[in-house]
Automatic annotation (TrEMBL):
<dbReference type="InterPro" id="IPR001812">
    <property type="entry name" value="Trypano_VSG_A_N_dom"/>
</dbReference>
<dbReference type="GO" id="GO:0005886">
    <property type="term" value="C:plasma membrane"/>
</dbReference>
<keyword id="KW-0449">Lipoprotein</keyword>
<keyword id="KW-0325">Glycoprotein</keyword>
<dbReference type="GO" id="GO:0042783">
    <property type="term" value="P:symbiont-mediated evasion of host immune response"/>
</dbReference>
<protein>
    <submittedName>
        <fullName>Variant surface glycoprotein 1493</fullName>
    </submittedName>
</protein>
<feature type="domain" description="Trypanosome variant surface glycoprotein A-type N-terminal">
    <location>
        <begin position="15"/>
        <end position="356"/>
    </location>
</feature>
<dbReference type="Pfam" id="PF00913">
    <property type="entry name" value="Trypan_glycop"/>
</dbReference>
<keyword id="KW-0732">Signal</keyword>
<keyword id="KW-1003">Cell membrane</keyword>
<keyword id="KW-0336">GPI-anchor</keyword>
<feature type="signal peptide">
    <location>
        <begin position="1"/>
        <end position="28"/>
    </location>
</feature>
<dbReference type="GO" id="GO:0098552">
    <property type="term" value="C:side of membrane"/>
</dbReference>
<keyword id="KW-0472">Membrane</keyword>
Amino acid sequence: MDDSRSKLFKIALAALIVTLYAASTCEAAVANALKKSYWSEVCDLAKDSEKIPKLALYNLQAAAQSGQAALTRLLRLMAYHEIKRSTVDNKTAALWQYLAKKTGAELQDLASNGAATAITATRDAARFQGAVMDFMHLLASTGTSDNKGCLNTAESGTNPVQGHTALEAAHISCGIDFSDVTPAAETAKLMGSTGPTISKQNGGDANAIAGGATTCNINSVKSTWKMVDDETGGNPTVQPSMGGNIFTVDSTGLKMDALADVTNKAQSHPFIHAHHKAKLQLNTPKTQFSEIKVETLGQDPDFQAAARYYLLGKNPTDSSGDANLQSKINAHYTNSVALKAIVETAVDSETIPKELTD
């Protein structure tokens, strides 16, 4: 009996040891791939950020070109009057001061906040897109021909994306443009007043955002997630953030964070918070100056001070007569067509050395 009990004890002990060893070395339970309706909008959001550097370049060029156009027109007008020995009346002096003010304002914008805002916004948008697309490429690279991967090509089924080339083919906005930045007067559309405006802005846990194309190792529960816990089997206290702060891991697996409001998430979600701030700071295409428009001069802040002094006979800072400003402008200059004949056509028909103006 003693030998029999001893043998049974040894068998039971061996079985227990095997069980404990298996438990300590087991892989984390893995779940399904991300549904296309979720990951495609992540790509859309990243792609939309490319509009920020395009707008930044557009605004910088518009400011430089506006300043150049105003200065060139001013110098040509002054040279023309010097050649003709004509009297500089009040309406001409007002135009001179306006063009000088316009030149100074555009150059000042470039020298102060304009350039800094454009470059900072470009930097932060690029950081966000880079973080997002690096993670999307990682997810895409897990796809294999045996129906395993992390990005599903649909809402269910077992057909994962296999590699970054296939990623772009599956959804065009997942492609990254490495060509030179070109100017465009278009603002980012998928970032609103508080955060992203994509339909999946509220995110969801693994049960909501994943389905089909099983065995995505990245989509495993937090307690055994290899990137933070290796093989200890404990419950990690850290909260990882991935893909430009869009994704994390919880008790269900890979989770898409709620992103509808990122205004106060500078510490927890720095990439997407900075991108949101960049969009708010750089959200208006700059109006480029090319010619003087009589019909809108009354609303142009660069002309108001000169018009008050030369056309209304008031102090340049006295706005009490501004209600009559546009009608006074119309009386002096008639309309843009008539003014153009005086300040452009007549002037440009005169031979003026380019060294003086260009």
